[in-house]
Amino acid sequence: MNERALRVLEFNKIKEDLKRYTVTSASKDIIDELQPYDNIFEVTEHLQETKEAFELLIKKSAPPFEGMYDVREGISRAEKGFMLMPVQLLRIANLLRCARRFKLYISHKEEEESYRVIEDICEGLVAIKSLEDEIFSAIISEEEISDKASSTLFNIRRALRDKTSSIKSKVNSLVRTYSQYLQENIYTIRGDRYVLPVKVEYKGTVHGLVHDQSSSGATLFIEPMSLVNLNNEIKELRLKEKAEIERILQDLSEKVYDNIVIVKNNSKILWELDFIFAKAKYAGSINGICPEISQEGYFDIIQAKHPLIDTKIVVANDIYLNKGISSIVITGPNTGGKTVTLKTVGLLHIMAMSGLMIPAGEGSTISFFKEVFADIGDEQSIEQSLSTFSSHMNNIVNIIDNADEKSLALFDELGAGTDPTEGAALAIAILENLRQRGSKVVATTHYSELKAYALRIEGVENASVEFDVETLRPTYRLLIGIPGKSNAFEISKRLGLPNYIIEEAKKGISRDTLQFEDLIQNLQDKNIKAQKEVREAQGVKEQAVKLKTKYEEKLTKFDKIREKATIEAQKEAKKIIKEAKEESDKIMKDIRELEKMGYSSDVRQKLEENRKKLKEKLEKVEIDITKPKENEKPLEKVYEGQEVYLTTFDKNVIVLSKPNNKGELQVQAGIMKIKVKLKDLCEIKKNKVEKKVAKKKQINLNLKQVSSSVDLRGMDSEEAIYEVDKYLDDAYIGGLGEVTIIHGKGTGILRNVINDMLKKHHHVKSFRAGEYGEGGSGVTIAVLK
């Protein structure tokens, strides 16, 4: 993309606004390099990443960038094997933590919406929690190393505290002893050594080493000889502390060096993510949307707003270039908004092609252009001795040399700055040349010749900015399809020019010209109304299509979940049957072993018969899993409005359509309309409730006796949870209403674990601690549903 267009359209101001939403200076550097991408695939992908980040901000709030810094300097030092400072290590640890947390931030359940582009970017993030934890445990702040960084450092600092305490006691004693010779009854420190402020006339009285003298010369700072050894010991410990800290920092720096590839990769990905989420935050600030991308050179920007104009005063306009139209010629009064319209078209295209969402209405489409050229503004150059016309012409020559069918050219006041007749002719020739080579053009002009050109040439369309004659002010609304009316007579009349002068002026204009102006006014009024109705209808249509697509996707996802659940249920049932078969065979094997030890052949024969009966029953149950029951015979024919039973949902439904050639039809289940297979439909089940109740009662008769309590004492937490879960299943099937769980008092850990489990258990209605006589806090009473 040419730099002049980016400068003229003020894309640099957009980038400066974007920087305000970044966390690190590294991301700001990425924004500095931001330019429109040079292929449609990149444009689409970068717009998608911005859209996904925008949705994540709405659904999951701010991303976990807390504590993330620009650590390029630290990484560079580590890469060369240098020792890192505590602040650099701490920031690298923060970066690693951000990488780990971001993996959690974008994680989601299988059935939830995915974020393809951002998830692909995050695939490269690698958590190194061991290094992260080691740095955080060793470094407390940007200037302080923890005592726990190493046992050696801990011992040194403990010895240092002891020595410091001893020397303070000693020096306080000396202060009292020499108080009459001291300038003040305090001690002080010079060069990390404890000294006394001795009056200069008593320097011979206090024996020791002179370290310093006051500015007045009246005080000498003397280290008494009795403190020399203690001060030396403290100095030695401080040197050891410093050496140990350097060793710890060097050790951590080496570990960063060992993982430098991962650290560098994580940092680059996180800075890229910071940039992406800055785009999303900026989109929120301008109420941006993600536009569709066209490759055909046509665009339709609904309710477009210039992003650099205050949202309270900016006027939204529909700006579009329909198929078959290559150029738009915009006319209208000065300060009417023509230049702003030009800049809005160019800037929104550049923003979208740079992966930024744009301030426009949903359903907007922009086109992918290889180049956007802009000849806007007065760039008169005194140094180059160029007039306004010459400056514009230099730029137009460059556009003519480089524009092709993949280019968008924007011209403000094309042909201005010279003789009107020659300027108009030149403007028409330039527009025609660009039209013939397939370039898309939006141009503003005051020349009426260009209005006529747009009316005469196919593929060129007139447009105008609206002017309110009543208020004598522009409305800044763009009207595409209608050339602008001059309104000179109406404006003059409103300003008080006498009627006889206006009538005299009209005599100098041909009747055809006046009728043409009136026709323009009439068409303008009709076009405003027609455009409004078409836009509203188009918006409703697009909304309906989106809703249809959205619910079709939900229905497809629902069908997949249903099929998956059915398959999983059948697998689980087959697994249970298989385990039951294996268990029965094991029991029979054990019985045969017992029989060898004394059972008669008659007993063996009866056992074998029972085993066969059991096997037949299990096989029958297995067959029943995959085929309908007697009262669930599949229907061969159905009719619309028929009430039938849907086996996969265990629900009565209403038939809405006849089966297609695939055997599929639509039914209504409650408020949902779903597509099912004919083979899954049966006649309505009768007395379903009574049968279920009778079946439940019959099953309960054959159940083993279940105890009203379970004892967990002596078990660990995992074993206890497993035991309680199994026991609650048995108690529920056994029909028990209330059970006692014995966990003992102890430290209370087991009780808390069991209580947490009971809160979520599907069989438990409520629970409480045991009362006096029930076991007190050593038991928990659970009430079952």
From TrEMBL:
Question: Would the keyword Magnesium turn up in this protein's UniProt record?
Answer: no
Q: Which UniProt keywords apply?
A: ATP-binding, Coiled coil, DNA-binding, Endonuclease, Hydrolase, Nuclease, Nucleotide-binding, RNA-binding, rRNA-binding
Q: Which InterPro entries match?
A: DNA_mismatch_repair_MutS_C, DNA_mismatch_repair_MutS_core, DNA_mismatch_repair_MutS_sf, MSSS, MutS, MutS2, P-loop_NTPase, Smr_dom
Q: Which GO terms describe its molecular function?
A: endonuclease activity
Q: What is its EC number?
A: 3.1.-.-, 3.6.4.-
Residue runs in coiled coils: 513-540, 570-624
Q: What Pfam families has UniProt attached to this entry?
A: MSSS, MutS_V, Smr
What are the Smr domain coordinates in residue numbering? Answer: 710-785
What the entry lists under PROSITE patterns is as follows: DNA_MISMATCH_REPAIR_2, SMR
Q: Which residues bind ATP?
A: G332, P333, N334, T335, G336, G337, K338, T339
EC category name: hydrolase
Q: Which SMART domains match?
A: MUTSac, MUTSd, SMR
Quaternary form?
Homodimer. Binds to stalled ribosomes, contacting rRNA.
Task: Outline what the protein does.
Answer: Endonuclease that is involved in the suppression of homologous recombination and thus may have a key role in the control of bacterial genetic diversity.
| Family to which the UniProt record says this protein belongs | Belongs to the DNA mismatch repair MutS family. MutS2 subfamily.
Q: What is this protein called?
A: Endonuclease MutS2
Q: Which organism is it from?
A: Clostridium aestuarii
Q: What gene codes for this chain?
A: mutS2
